[in-house]
Amino acid sequence: MAGQVTVLIVDDSPIMQKLLTTMMDGDKRIQVVGVASNGEECIQKTIQLKPQVILMDLEMPILDGVNAIKELSLKNLEVAVLLTCDFSQKDSNQLQEGIKAGAFDFFVKPKSTMEIDKYQRQVITKIFVASFSKTKQIPKLGDMTVDTVSGVATPGAGPRSKRYVVVGCSTGGKMDLTHLVPALPESTQAAIIVVIQQPAFIVQAFIKEMATASKVPVRLAENGAQVQNRQVSIVPAGDKDVLVDKSGETFIFKFVDPDDNTNHPSIDRLMESAATAFGKDLCGVILSGTGLDGLKGMQSIRVAKGLTLVQDKASCAVNQLPAAVAKANLAHETLNVAKIAEKISGSVK
Predict the structure, then answer these.
(1) Which DSSP symbol is given to 187?
(2) Contact at 8 Å (CB) between 196 and 315?
(3) Per DSSP, what are the bridge partners of residue 283?
(4) Over pLDDT 70: what percentage of the chain?
(5) Are residues 316 and 262 in the same domain?
(6) What pTM value is reported for the model?
(7) Pair type for strands 241-247 and 250-256
(8) What is the CATH number of the domain that holds 255?
């Protein structure tokens, strides 16, 4: 029907997908043009279907609601986003971040069937309000860059050199690093930080091996130590996560307690903190590994306009993690270890 408001429903719960679709189908002024189960799928369907409004779940796998909004903004898409969340998330920092990223408003999902009618009225009303006003749309940041000190978006002046590199790997990654690090020429200028999610004795053996094989100094990262250019800093194994923090005019390593039950040190947390600290001066690299730790980190680097590289399947000892990053469209390039070494060593002109 002409004049209908087009809506895309994004939620990883099939129950919520069906509930929201049924609600929208009850109003002839609204047309549900599609459903998606995560932020990555949302971006693809938004480009394809061009909805006017997105009902976006806050917490989803692969790409959550907040980062999906940021990625949509970078693609200059004209759309309004309404976030949906559980009752426990209504005062969360994550929801506040979503609103700050450009969401028009949010809804708390109904806790019982008795609340569904009230929820339906609220959702439909805000869909129309959001669709009528251009000011309700997410910001367009595709032609902007982010100032890493102020966090304010400003007109972009084109790509800058990458002065910092964070490399993450787990199972099989040590083998790849023994090829990558020695391939770095003495002229390498970048500060390179490496997370190897392996037992301490493997990490220690790698550092000892690189002491003679590497043309670039290889050191163990220490709590409070400064992030150094022209050096490879290896994050120690253990039960601490390592972040990059700003101290005056310098950047330092900050050891913190883990905030969940995933592997540690966390690739995601290091990359996310580095993306905040270094912005578009950062290059993120994922080598061999299992699991998904590193996926959110690479997304943060993409949002900050940094460079993202993943190891190709042919040269990978274990391809699960690199394949997950590539499948989520988070890698600018998929390269073998030798090419990654060339990119890193040439990242500072």
Answers:
(1) T
(2) no
(3) 165, 307
(4) 90
(5) yes
(6) 0.57
(7) antiparallel
(8) 3.40.50.180
Q: Is 154 part of any domain?
A: no
> Is residue 150 predicted with pLDDT exceeding 50?
no
- What the block records as the tokens of 63 is 């790409």
* Pair of tokens at residue 138: 């997410």
- 44: amino acid identity, one letter: Q
Give the whole-angstrom CA distance, residue 147 versus residue 161: 15
Question: Model confidence over 190-229: pLDDT tens digits?
Answer: 999 999 998 888 898 899 999 889 999 999 999 999 999 9
183 and 82 co-located in one domain: no
Hey, what amino acid is at 201? Answer: F
Q: Tell me how many domains the chain contains.
A: 2
Q: Which two tokens stand for residue 341?
A: 């070494």
pLDDT tens profile 241-271: 999 998 888 899 999 998 876 778 999 999 9
CA distance 57 to 89: 11
Q: How far apart are CA 129 and CA 105, in angstroms?
A: 10
* 349, pLDDT greater than 90: no
Tell me if 156 is assigned to some domain: no
Is 170 found in the same domain as 112? Answer: no
Length of the chain: 349
